[in-house]
Amino acid sequence: MRIVCNVITLLAIGAGLALSAPAHAQDKLATVASFSILGDFVKNVGGDRIAVTTLVGPNGDAHVYEPTPADAKALNTAKVVFINGLGFEGWMDRLVRASGSKATVVTASQGVTPIAFAGEEEDDHAKGKKHAHEEHEHGQDPHAFQSIANVKLYVGNIRDALIAADPAGKDVYEANATAYTAKLDALDGEVKAAIQAIPEGQRKIITSHDAFGYFGKAYGFAFIAPQDISTESEASAKDVARLIRQIKADKVKAVFVENITDRRLIDRIAKETGAVVGGELYSDALSPPDGPAATYIDMFHHNIKTLSAALSS
Ligand SMILES: [Zn+2]
């Protein structure tokens, strides 16, 4: 009798485990995220129920990424593929098609109000001066993830897509999304408080490419860059010269290098204008796990700390 009871107990424990979470990697919902920041959002919402493969890794530049055969393989076995959209990863459509993937492709930025990328529109920081980008094509700025309010929309889209692909996990995905959104709200409060300490006239920042338009809009910063919203084309000599004139005229204190781009142009601009290099900002990718921006929340903390240190004095 005792043996029978033990067997029943074991069966019950086994059933309990099966209900709580898939036990093996092959039981997890296979997902792909196009780049590291998005991969972090997907991990936070999916938790233990999913496996995430990130294509463009730490410090990687998604604008000019060249996919690998391993990427095609990951897409082929994925059930859900998350992309940023807004033209951020232009190589992705072709890669998905070429891989033969049957995955649902989810645009995580769905619902975001895009910032139109057009030179004249951003003239508030330039006070009538010609903007460095006026000769570039008009388009949409893809870096919507640099606004925490936008990321809350990403999280909702990710949650809904995971529920659609794995309805049994609904409660888990909803709870994870709610918990992560609460952390994002706390982060947003911290960022706003930190920015209050930076004198308003100094909330003006130069980076190598225009990745901080949404950040600037959300938090009252002007970001100016010699390269436009993509890193695909190099900044022209004319754009750089114009930017240097603007930095001098506006008495901009600091310029910043980015983790995904070559720092030489920023170093040169610093040298020619007398602005200091204020540190490294994480724009389009996280750092490796042992770096200062291993998660989106760490990335925001790092960027705010870097901006405050360079601009508050
Ligand atoms: Zn970018």
TrEMBL record:
Organism from which the protein derives: Flaviflagellibacter deserti
Signal sequence coordinates: 1-25
Stored Pfam families: ZnuA
Main location: other
Xref: PANTHER family: HIGH-AFFINITY ZINC UPTAKE SYSTEM PROTEIN ZNUA-RELATED, METAL-BINDING PROTEIN HI_0362-RELATED
Name by which UniProt lists this protein: Metal ABC transporter substrate-binding protein
Keywords, alphabetical: Metal-binding, Signal, Transport
InterPro entries on file: AdhesinB (IPR006129), Bact_metal-bind_prot9 (IPR050492), Lipoprotein_PsaA-like (IPR006128), ZnuA-like (IPR006127)
Location in the cell: Cell envelope
Family membership: Belongs to the bacterial solute-binding protein 9 family.
